[in-house]
Amino acid sequence: MGDVARETGARSVEDDREIAPGSVRTDVELVAARVHQLRAVDPLGRITVIVDSPAAGRHLLRVLAANAPIFNVEPITLGTLVERFSSVSVAQDQEILLAAAHTCGAIEDFGDVRREVSTVAAVARVFRELSRIPVDEWPATQSGVSSIVLTACREMAGSLSGALAHDWIGDASVRLQGDSAHASLGSIVAHEATLRHGTRAGFGPVIAALNSRTEVVALAESTQRIHTVIEAAHPLAEALAVIQRVLAAGPGSGGIGIALSDPSIYAREVAHLLDAAGIPWHGLTGRTLLETRTARTALAMIAVTPDLRRDQISAVVEPGLITVNGFRLRFAAFENLTRRTGFDDGGVATRRSAAVAGGDDWTRLNLIEDGAADEEQWRVEQRDATAELVGTCARLATAASGNYRQLGAQLLAALALVARDSDPAEAGARTVIDTLARQWRDHGMPLPSSARGAAELLSRSLNVGVNANSAPRSRVVVGTVAQMRSLDLDHLFVLGAGEGSCPTVPAEDPLLPDAERQQVTGLSTVSDRIAEQGEDWRTALRAARAVTVSYARDSLRSNVEQFASRYLDRVPAAKPDRVVRVGGIAQVIREAASDGSHDGWLVNEHHFRLASGLAGKRPGTDHVERSRDCRNARDAGLLSEWNGYVPEAGRRYVRDHSGGVADEYSASALENYLTCPHAYLVEKVVGATRLDRPENADEVKAKDRGSLVHKIFELVTAEWTSGRIRDVDELRRCAYEFESASIASFEASFAVGDGFAWEVLKERIHHAVDEWCLDVSAMLGGSDVADGSPGPISGERAFGRAAGRPVSYTVRESGRALNLRGSIDRVDVYDTPDGRAARVVDYKTANPDTYKDFRDPARAGSFADLTAGGKLVQPGIYLAAVRADADIAALCPRSWTIGYHVFDARGDLRKAEMTVTADAEEAFDQLMNEIDAGFAAGFYAPIGIGGRSHAYCAACHVGVFDAAQAHADALAEAWLELRSDETTDFNRSGVES
């Protein structure tokens, strides 16, 4: 039982007495510990826990049941709470864990809430009323112990104002801290939505209140170095909370640095968040100043205000980015846009003007047609827009923050420069100049003496602090890692290390200036930028006394692991020493125990429940049958061991369900068996499909996106191998026709939207098709197509018994023959100086990051090293299949290569080709030996180095099968009436081979 408790993260009441320094506990663990405490006082009392989803409730029940049977514990959602208060008398004694307060009797008229009133509004009333009740007057339970809460309602923080949120979270938590009955409750508050929306005005104090009572990162009190990697819903807010704790600890010998891995991503939000929290800071780059919300909008207003000479502004505000309809564009690109839409210097003739949403938090700019036929009305609108612009700059110049004051003065100087050099004879220019002069006098701003003086002032101000010798006034500095390396820092925060590829404006974009068109590479990868600045990162990270790497929850975990392994010397084996999930119902990601006491990878209990149909809305008949098979296997004791080992009775069950066909194994299934045992269990053994959420703004699932690209390649290959294509031009024409038809069909079948991200994705697909055509053209060597010409000779070539091409592989150690089946994406023949060679090509279009090492073999080591993750099982089997194919063997190639075409939706079609050597053959044989040994022993996952699987699947949480779960299963099944909120869907089309 102790092993189970360690893996589930559950803690007993005795373990909750003290949180040791450096420990990390999730909100679920804290709530579970508190529930155990309440149960120890009142064994029969009713406990109701507010959760954000039914899945969260089921997870909490599993954690509770792992230590001891828990009775009369009910998880409910906020929607259920509102409905219950509408039908149940408020005088009824109920123990509600809501905002660290007992809601019974708190609001007399809550039962009159109408059904159509939203959950957010109803709960807001609860919190407002509770804030007026002294903590000592909160109703107690029959046992005399008041209740607590885990607030995890995402929709609430997005709707409530910052002041109200601070009242019911911050103030209530402060009062609870002083109450002996609630002394340990403040540390339980962990509000995911507040962290996510931390950039809202007024939420800074809320974030501070929450994180000061939530143990997230244990900072070293001495000078001992500590490296921490945080995965958070909002990494900026999390970093801010730690910064506030460091500042509160008193002055240190050095400063606090915030290193931006990519200033274009985080600079604006960092500046706004620090200012909103009232933390003095010093910007080392002009971009950190220019990309604040208000400053960015002011730059946009300068660019579109009629009759202002934009060509004179561009020289001094070129680094700035502006926002048009939600998209960030360079200033030069925006100049092209304004001219194309009529915003030339002759603004009167075009009858257009700019309408900008008002307020200090302007973030969007919309271009609208001005239907006014009256020139005087246009002048009035122009004058009002100019007045608003100058007023905004003046408010900036008089703001409390020194950074905003500096920026406001710079923008006002730029406006004065434009007004002074404008031609009074131009239509409307006199109105602009008069308005500027009046506003200038009202705010006491001196006009610059010359245009050159204003430009120099602005340029010098925007680059303040670049010289390391200029000591900042604040302990907190923000900039690039190159600027951090020479500073004395107590703590260095790294933001954005987990970001992947950032979409850039494609080269074909009509808004892109001609001078920049040739410089666009089409892909902006943060990890590549970090690698280019490797020495700067090593110097800065080693010089800082403490380092915290914070990255967004939706970022690429592989990038973070890569960063940690290269630059954080305290993090072993390319894995962070701690990964903390902050807020919501989430658990710390744990790997299997490294003490060697187990024999295999842990089977994922959460995925087992998905496969069993317990978490689905309406599982199909086929999934019900598979669920029954899986449940029978567990009930028969086949899955009873916590270490993932399946006893003797389960060996045939594993083997019969491994490839879908007895004694014949799918190439993709065997690779999945090695690289992701959890997905193998769910998809290949049980037959269900895990929920695949979109990973990009285009809202297209990775599998669907990959199928689209794969289908285009398949159609073009089939056309080529049929002999209907005779030259390169015809090849391109055919490829583009298939591309257009496939994309049109895809758009008709899937809700892809019509946004900028989908357009970028289509451009990437077009570029990938171009690369495919270039690859085939290179094999031809510029000649026309003829019989026997180099190029693809087969596409989607099936092998196995059903295809009439049986393939058998003999395992070296056991001598057992494995019958194989599958389909080869493409087989090529091409000419080399040593004769004709053949190549097996495998398309990787749905999950390209798994194969990132193949893009740079030199970085990963030898070809044999690349097989360590089991990634070469599939092409290795394909190679064995084509060698056994009589038609292909007749070509008698002298050498074979394995090629990967990896399509990255955030990048291009990347190709990798490696010659099959003796080392590679040996590595492939070893992989097949491990697979055979795993099947023979009855393991779902093979034995790897250190007693664990070769590859770690970041999408899978480690769970267990154990007899102790039976009680939690019974509770969860009785709670299934709440599952209507689930969004899990199953693939009803059957098992993909």
From TrEMBL:
Keywords: ATP-binding, DNA damage, DNA repair, Exonuclease, Helicase, Hydrolase, Nuclease, Nucleotide-binding
InterPro entries given in the database record: P-loop_NTPase, PDDEXK_AddAB-type
Keyword flag Lipid biosynthesis: no
Domain annotation PD-(D/E)XK endonuclease-like: ranges: 665-957
Record bears the keyword DNA repair: yes
GO MF annotation list: exonuclease activity; helicase activity
GO biological process, any: DNA repair
A Pfam family hit: PDDEXK_1
Protein's name according to its UniProt entry: PD-(D/E)XK nuclease superfamily protein
Provenance organism: Rarobacter faecitabidus
